[in-house]
Design a protein that fits this description.
By secondary structure, this protein is an alpha+beta fold. It has six helices and eight strands, in the order ββααβββααβββαα. The strands form two sheets. A five-stranded mixed beta sheet has the order 1-2-3-4-5, covered by helices on one side. A hairpin with a 7-residue loop joins β4 and β5.
Amino acid sequence: MKTFSLCVFLSLTVLIAGCGNRKNHPQPSPPSHQQEATEFRTDSFKYASQSRQGRCEIFLDYPVQDGTPAAIAVKDYIKATLFDNSASLAPDEPEAITKAYCEQTLERLGKTLDQMGIKHVDEESMPEEGIEIRMVYQSRQVVTYEIYRYSYLTNGPHGEYAEYGVSFRRSDGKRMGSDIIQHTDEAFNAMIREGLRQYFDITSDQQLQEICTVDIKEPPMPTFPPYFVGNGIRFHYSIYDVCEFDDGDPSFTIPYERIAPYLSEEAAHLLP
């Protein structure tokens, strides 16, 4: 991936600006023998396309099951993420979905170049946009996806990317939100500060406050809800949630045994 220059995410609620190396995603936890009968199975699909308007890439872990609540919910979520308000018109087959996404993206990039009065772009400065939607965790109770999006548009100062996760309850496909956290107190805030210190590789709250733009005595929740991963609840802050642009998008995981007292009853029933 080249160094980006300007990114436009028309469909993303929160844009995370900045350039940097792609983070390594955790791999899906292998199912145990007890899980094998109810494994949430996916197939992976990758597609790339290029035209005079730019380049597009997509990677997609698409559910194999038909008819299960979680598979239906994940498929609907994927379509809504890729196609915004036109999700109901999206194709059903994953190969067609990836192709349609890139066709839509290249058309939008071309229109943007026309609006900017740019008639020609060379290979190096060609605009591009891409997305990865990967299953990163599953248990008998939940399945979790992480989404990574990036975009670059010609003649800009930098690129933009966004990364966040979402967990679905397998029994009925419900997408879990910020309400998985039932309450907070000073001990909870201390765990958040600890996670932020570990991310920034610092040792004191004084150093943390010098980095953060919010009062770390009562740090806010991330813009995107926390989500279930193999070893705990993952918090992934968007850029500007707690710090400036140059400090990135802090993320950390609080182990289940530590965060369990703060989970809602609904979320607590989903613990592995």
